[in-house]
Every structure is written in structure tokens, then in C-alpha cells.
Automatic annotation (TrEMBL):
Protein keywords: Membrane, Transmembrane, Transmembrane helix
Name this protein carries in UniProt: Permuted papain-like amidase YaeF/Yiix C92 family enzyme
Source organism superkingdom: Bacteria
Pfam families reported for this sequence: Peptidase_C92
Native source species: Taibaiella chishuiensis
Organism lineage string: Bacteria, Pseudomonadati, Bacteroidota, Chitinophagia, Chitinophagales
């Protein structure tokens, strides 16, 4: 009888001990249990690039440009990286933009022919990027589109020249040497293409620093007679 009563007491004490442990775990591990039942997404670090890309105003104004560009338009952008900041400083009159390309509508969509190179890609060649990627708010802080005063024949010649350079895989010129044509940098591509299609060696100007002559981005659009099509500064 006493043995049976003792067993019951031990079972009761054991049950109480287990209950106390459960209460202890619940009280001191509420957050752990809540996360287990209702897991929360990991915290996301929102970089300036991500904020620009997610902004509805920026997305709308990036897409709106796609509807109004025409063959032969000059597209400029202001990159958000450190290299772009250096290229903007090279401009002497307007430091708004760091890169340039020429757009053509191909298969119903605007594509930008441009040259860009860096240390990670020393073998870079002339590329053809979608306009939406070229002016993306994720990688840029602003962009603009300008239109040269060209005849239809000149625009067609410009397109043919761009395609030819693209197929030839015309390489990026890391030395920024205007004397060579086998390799080009972004603004040099536009500069020499416009000279070839117009036949005017003074169609666009250059920038002179000491004994070095080069084509800066502002040489391409600070020109009499050029038309501003659109200009957007993204919300940061």
C-alpha cells in the first residue's frame, strides 16, 4: 500500500517537474518559439542602388524613355560607381554624365551600341545592350537622350557602321588613344562614327589637356543644333 502511494507521489512530482520545465522554456524562449511558429524574413540591407531600382518614379521614367527614342539617338548615363565618378570629372563644361552610346531600334526594341572596359574585363569589345539595362536606375543616377541632326541616309550609315564594328568585335582602348582606330573607348566610338557618317572632321570637338587630346562625354552633346529628347535624374 505504502509502495503504491509512494509510486503515485513520484509520478506526480515527475509530472510537476516536467510541467515546470515546459513553463520555464516557454517564458525564457518566447522569441525562439515565435520564430519557429511564425518565422520572419531575414533583414535586408537596402543599398542606394536597390532603393533607386525599387522606386516607382524611377522605374516609370526609365521605361518612358524607351517609347520615344529613335535610331541614331545619343544616350548618356551617369554611373553610380567610382570609375564613373572619375570619368565625369574629366568633362570640362558639364560633369553630368560618365558614359555614352548610340541607340537603334532592332526587332522592335531599342539597343545601345557602346564600349566599356575595366580591370576585370581587359578584353572588352563593342557591346550591344538593351536600353533598359543601359539606363537602369540600379546602376545609374541619371540619363539623357540627345538627337543629332542627321538625314535618314546618314542614320542608316551610322547603323551599318555600328553593326560592322560589333561584328568585328572592335576592342576597348584602355590607353584612350585617338590616333588608333583598331580599339576605341566609348566617346571615341561616337566621335569617330559621327565624323565618318557626316564627312565632317569638325562635327564634334575634342578636349585638349597639355599634349593629350581626348573625347570627353560633354564633347558629344554640347553642340549647336543637337536636340535634347529627354533628361532624367533618378530619385536617390
Amino acid at each position: 500500500m505504502d509502495s503504491t502511494h509512494g509510486n503515485k507521489n513520484r509520478k506526480l512530482h515527475g509530472a510537476l517537474l516536467i510541467a515546470m520545465l515546459v513553463v520555464f522554456l516557454v517564458v525564457y524562449n518566447r522569441k525562439l518559439l515565435m520564430d519557429w511558429y511564425d518565422p520572419q524574413p531575414a533583414a535586408v540591407v537596402h543599398t542606394p542602388n536597390m532603393r533607386r531600382a525599387a522606386n516607382p518614379w524611377n522605374r516609370y521614367h526609365a521605361d518612358s524613355c524607351i517609347q520615344i527614342v529613335k535610331d541614331g539617338d545619343l544616350v548618356l548615363r551617369s554611373g553610380s560607381d567610382a570609375i564613373s565618378a572619375l570619368f565625369k570629372k574629366v568633362n570640362t563644361r558639364d560633369k553630368s554624365y560618365s558614359h555614352a552610346g548610340i541607340v537603334f531600334i532592332e526587332n522592335g526594341y531599342p539597343m545601345v551600341y557602346n564600349l566599356i572596359g575595366n580591370a576585370e574585363d581587359p578584353e572588352a569589345v563593342l557591346r550591344r545592350d538593351s536600353l533598359s539595362a543601359f539606363i537602369s536606375p540600379h546602376d545609374n543616377t541619371a540619363y539623357a537622350v540627345y538627337r543629332y541632326k542627321l538625314s535618314r541616309q546618314q542614320v542608316e550609315k551610322l547603323h551599318d557602321l555600328s553593326i560592322r564594328y560589333f561584328k568585328e568585335k572592335r576592342r576597348f582602348d584602355p590607353h584612350f588613344d585617338l590616333a588608333t582606330d583598331s580599339s576605341l573607348y566609348c566617346t571615341e566610338f561616337v566621335y569617330k562614327a559621327m565624323i565618318e557618317v557626316t564627312g565632317d572632321k569638325k562635327y564634334l570637338g575634342t578636349t585638349q589637356t597639355a599634349n593629350f587630346s581626348f573625347v570627353s562625354v560633354d564633347n558629344l552633346f554640347l553642340k549647336k543644333g543637337i536636340k535634347l529628347v529627354c533628361k532624367i535624374v533618378y530619385i536617390q
